[in-house]
Amino acid sequence: MTTSFVPRRIQDVAASNLGEYEEACRVFTWAKARALLDGLPGGALNIAHEAVDRHVAAGRGAGTAIRFIAKDGTRRDITYADLKADTDRFADLLGDLGVKRGDRVYSLLGRVPELYVTALGTLKAGAVFSPMFSAFGPEPIKARMAIGGARVLVTSRRLYERKVASWRDELPGPLDVLVVDGGEQVPAGTHCFHDLMAAAEPTFVTVATNPQDMALLHFTSGTTGKPKGAVHVHEAVVAHAATGRFALDLHPDDVFWCTADPGWVTGTSYGIISPLVNGVTLIVDEAEFDAERWYSILEREKVTVWYTAPTAIRMLMKAGSDPVLGRDLTHLRFMASVGEPLNPEAVVWGAETFGMPFHDNWWQTETGGIMIANYASMDVKPGSMGKPLPGITAAIVEKTADGVREATAPMTIGQLALRPGWPSMMRAYLHEEERYAECFAGGWYLSGDLAMRDTDGYFWFVGRADDVIKSAGHLIGPFEVESALMEHPAVAEVGVIGVPDDTVGETVKAFVALKPGIAQSDALMLELIGHARKRLGPAVAPKEIAFRVNLPKTRSGKIMRRLLKARELGLPEGDISTLESDER
Ligand code: ATP
Ligand code: MG
Fold it and tell me: What is the per-residue pLDDT across 25-55, written as a single tens digit (0 to 9) for each?
């Protein structure tokens, strides 16, 4: 573990939204965070009002809300006023279709403008928004729509014909399908999104939703098993606002780029809601990852705050630092990462390449917003997730015979737990009451992740509870082993699992993808094992290394260690509905 700091970039702590960490925590209350928002008459609260209409009412309608970059590079700006008009129309058209408060509106779209209008217009109408990845196959789409009881689906003609048309009649309830690109050619049984928009009223009175009304239905990534449907309410916007302000340091003049797809929670909480509530200009790129394209977006759009993920950072590292040379990235002032453990190597690479570290932060679909973070005003310990947000109480807890107990000794491995009660906490796993109840014990929400806290109060990720390896009495976190191997210049990506062993319980096995141009060989394998032994000692270092072209990942970019393990042991692969196709 690295104990040295990468110093913060902002020397003037007062210039950051958070300021001095302890003081920020001391003065923060959720009530004060709520008071920074408008609300609606009668104690109502609606996410879309806070994200869009509030800015227009305050005279900020001419500001650019979203800049879309189409696959072919064409740019289109949508102002806050445009977004208000479009979302008003969409909310109105839902009424024309007979959609009621609480009904579920699903999207199955790439990152096109209609997706953002659907999300916010749905919330305005008091209906529930549930986004799906456009790359999902028919089965995961059907399962999600069946679980949530879809009333409306907004999609494209191609996606509808290929993935939905054949089974839509099997859904029990009525379903309206809106096609965004059909023109006069919309498939039978669907509506043309743009025709309905044109016929809708351009103004709509946002529904005065109760803060506890359901607003969002997000499915988890499916990394550890069958995805769960996490329910979030309108009050979540208080956390979206505060966490964007503190953990991403969003200021109204920022140009903010969140690279996550709205098909998973980051792409909605921080790819739509939080940045708009904070009044920034949001960059949306329709295309998939491409190192050159990404650097040119950072440069041309003068991105100031960039929120991405370890998988993407590792792919950029694979391409080397050369593509950054000669680019003017002087506008960039804050970089953050979420979704998976961020190897210290990646933090240091960020500091060397961009002049500032990537700031790792931790949260889950269930938490709705960032819970633990590295802040602009705080030095970074590479490999640590940082400290809890103001208003969040986090702890390491251990199971006891009659519940759980908080671990007080520093660097004790235990389950990462949070005190329930923050506004964006999930309110249910839809139709899975028992599973929801199992997440709570002894007054804590149990995250299912193992972590440690050091004497300075920084949290360190160890691994998912399911992934931790028990070997000869040691508890080995896959992240520690993966990070050590990542330091080797030949390594692009690593996934580590435990393989059952009669003598020691489990032995450590690593699956390694190499950087381009590096050949697999027995000599390299031995070198990697030697490197890991030197870094970790023989008890923790992998006994075995296997090379892979790619590692299996979820659509949200997470390494599926359970799949590496199932394949290794010849066990059933389980639910692989969120698996991105992988080359073994
Ligand atoms: P499922 O619950 O269906 O198995 P998932 O847990 O991957 O899927 P998400 O809610 O998208 O679904 O991901 C949250 C998880 O991602 C966390 O519980 C944690 O394991 C991992 N994670 C997120 N951010 C970080 C981080 N900064 N460091 C380490 N792990 C992280
Ligand atoms: Mg999870």
Answer: 999 999 999 999 999 999 999 999 999 999 9
* Residue 464 beta carbon below 6 angstroms from any ligand 1 atom: yes
Is the pTM value of this prediction over 0.85? yes
Residue 155, number of CB atoms within 10 A of its CB: 27
> 286 and 112 in contact (C-beta within 8 Å)?
yes
What lies within 8 Å, CB to CB, of 559 at 6+ separation is: 311, 340, 493, 495, 551, 552, 553
Over the stretch 169-204, which tens digit does the pLDDT of each residue have? Answer: 999 999 999 999 977 789 999 999 999 999 999 999
* Residue 483, number of CB atoms within 10 A of its CB: 24
Task: Tell me the helix, strand and coil percentages in the chain, rounded to 5.
Answer: 30, 25, 40
> How many Å apart are CA 366 and CA 364, to the nearest integer?
5
Nearest partner of 551 among 537, 568, 526, 532, judged by Cα:
568
From the CA of 562, which ligand is nearest?
1
Gap from CA of 222 to ligand 2 centroid (Å) = 7
* For ligand 1, mutation pick of 147, 216, 221, 430 (most atoms within 8 Å of CB): 221
Alpha carbon distance 136, 134 (integer Å): 6
Residue 559 CB–ligand 1 contact under 6 Å: no
Instruction: Confirm or reject: Cβ of 222 under 6 Å from ligand 1.
Output: yes
**Structural tokens at position 415:** 């389950």
